[in-house]
Amino acid sequence: xxxxxxxxxxxxxxxxxxxxxxxxxxxxxxxxxxxxxxxxxxxxxxxxxxxxxxxxxxxxxxxxxxxxxxxxxxxxxxxxxxxxxxxxxxxxxxxxxxxxxxxxxxxxxxxxxxxxxxxxxxxxxxxxxxxxxxxxxxxxxxxxxxxxxxxxxxxxxxxxxxxxxxxxxxxxxxxxxxxxxxxxxxxxxxxxxxxxxxxxxxxxxxxxxxxxxxxxxxxxxxxxxxxxxxxxxxxxxxxxxxxxxxxxxxxxxxxxxxxxxxxxxxxxxxxxxxxxxxxxxxxxxxxxxxxxxxxxxxxxxxxxxxxx
Length: 308
Hints:
With 308 residues, the chain is an all-alpha fold. The chain has helices at residues 11-40, 46-64, 66-70, 74-99, 103-110, 113-125, 131-148, 158-179, 188-207, 216-222, 225-250, 255-262, 265-275, 282-307. Helix 2 (46-64) packs across helix 11 (225-250), helix 4 (74-99) runs antiparallel to helix 8 and helix 5 (103-110) runs antiparallel to helix 13.
């Protein structure tokens, strides 16, 4: 805090890194989540896995924030519920997408949300983005084209297209959070709990519909130790741990610094896919991945400068 004198200036960077490291770990587990989801999910178990993933973590969130949940107004419940419906679409698209593409592609394509969001916001507010941001967006899109064509120029896979659509719906979710007045002053924990509760309700309804695939119970019974380890990783590390670290870090650091660290997620997705998953994207794909990372980083910084 600016009002507290620091006796030894060298301690400030050290304290900053004590906050940065858990946030960086969140980016790492989020990057690895695509490979984990791919390892325990098939086309016929997507809905069941989503039910299990969030049903495991939702009670802990509800217990932790039960007092603040009771203080939400009816309008805040409705707003958070609407956000939860959008969030359920994001998770469905992401999970179906990662089943049909590589973890590397999934993590890099979804990072386009960082480019789509300022573009969509500019369209809504009728403000033209800075030229540097538009250039960064062009670099990112070029990178995605090269990434998805690493084995030769062919039609992008269904998974690639689903991940691209997931990035678009994620953008809608971010804009809705910013524009729904009722939720602006809502407690973060309560807002997240209601959103996840609404999403789980959607998944539970889908799970009982004909043609939705295996039931959550059948999938849970059929899981072995490896699958349960993957599910617990997705539930505890990628949801519960990640959420609480973000809440903790944003109170001890700047939102821009937290965002910059979380923005390394696609790098870790690529690293996990290649190093652990044995994925190969070829020279063209590597060039595309580098362009996606460069474009999203450049675009984030350009958008931050425009907001200053």
